[in-house]
């Protein structure tokens, strides 16, 4: 997926509006899952809170602490994915593929991604109201297509690797002596530990690349930021030299100017990327 600045800004600014909603993680999460269960009622059984919820009203389900925790976690994951959008998509691709691989444990299949996509667009439309424009919708469709494709690719790769490992292990055990079988089991455990370690390294690399990604975005937008933060006067300085200076100038930006706020959000990501980890 080729993500240009306009697409990311449309998604970023619309998400900024969502974040302004009080308790937005729970609110957005509830709208999202209400729509998911409306489109696919059987999906409720895939979640821990679904099996725990046996009797009671529908509202009781959405007030269940386990549901609230899960709904917030999903929205937080979406927030992280949005934070990592930019010219270099490798960091978020790595994270999404690993996420897709983990979701195979829960029985998530390709058709489920389409349902979640419909529910997500519905959630955004409800939450944004008049802010749900054609440009914003197009941007979100593109971003979710990228997200779901990366997750499905990760799931497929994981399942193929697992099948190959199981097939190879079965062949070895059928032909092996007891001592060889024990050795094969130990080797399999070692491979699993190494794979887990490599995943941690990939995540660390992804976060490092994400930080670099956001700094590249800010650098590309430097002229716009300077015009907003420092003014257009010929006597204004042409570069933002320090983080403290940026923070001071940011306070002078009117809250009503959504375009300016969007650019400041990009700047915040570069300066405070650790807050979103």
TrEMBL record:
Pfam family, one: Globin
Domain of life the protein comes from: Eukaryota
The UniProt record lists the keyword Heme: yes
Gene Ontology molecular functions: heme binding; metal ion binding; oxygen carrier activity
PROSITE patterns: GLOBIN
Keywords, in A-Z order: Heme, Iron, Metal-binding, Oxygen transport, Transport
Stretches assigned to the Globin domain: 1-156
Family: Belongs to the globin family.
Name of the protein this chain belongs to: Flavohemoprotein
């Amino acid at each position: 997926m080729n993500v240009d600045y306009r697409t990311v800004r449309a998604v970023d600014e619309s998400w900024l509006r969502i974040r302004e909603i009080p308790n937005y993680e729970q609110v957005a999460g509830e709208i999202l899952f209400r729509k998911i269960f409306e489109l696919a009622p059987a999906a409720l059984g895939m979640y821990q809170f679904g099996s725990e919820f046996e009797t009671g009203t529908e509202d009781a389900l959405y007030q269940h602490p386990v549901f609230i925790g899960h709904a917030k976690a999903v929205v937080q994951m979406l927030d992280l994915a949005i934070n990592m959008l930019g010219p270099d998509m490798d960091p978020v691709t790595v994270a999404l593929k690993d996420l897709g691989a983990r979701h195979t444990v829960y029985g998530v299949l390709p058709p489920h991604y389409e349902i979640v996509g419909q529910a997500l667009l519905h959630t955004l439309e409800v939450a944004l109201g008049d802010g749900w424009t054609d440009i914003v919708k197009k941007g979100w469709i593109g971003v979710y297509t990228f997200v779901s494709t990366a997750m499905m690719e990760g799931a497929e790769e994981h399942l193929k690797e697992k099948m190959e490992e199981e097939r190879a292990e079965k062949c070895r055990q059928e032909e092996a002596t007891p001592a060889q079988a024990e050795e094969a089991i130990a080797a399999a455990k070692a491979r699993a530990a190494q794979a887990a370690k490599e995943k941690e390294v990939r995540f660390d690399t992804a976060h490092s690349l994400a930080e670099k990604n956001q700094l590249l975005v800010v650098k590309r937008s430097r002229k716009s930021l300077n015009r907003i933060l420092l003014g257009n006067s010929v006597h204004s300085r042409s570069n933002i030299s320090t983080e403290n200076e940026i923070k001071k100038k940011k306070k002078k930006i009117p809250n009503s100017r959504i375009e300016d706020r969007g650019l400041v959000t990009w700047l915040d990501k570069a300066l405070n990327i650790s807050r979103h980890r």
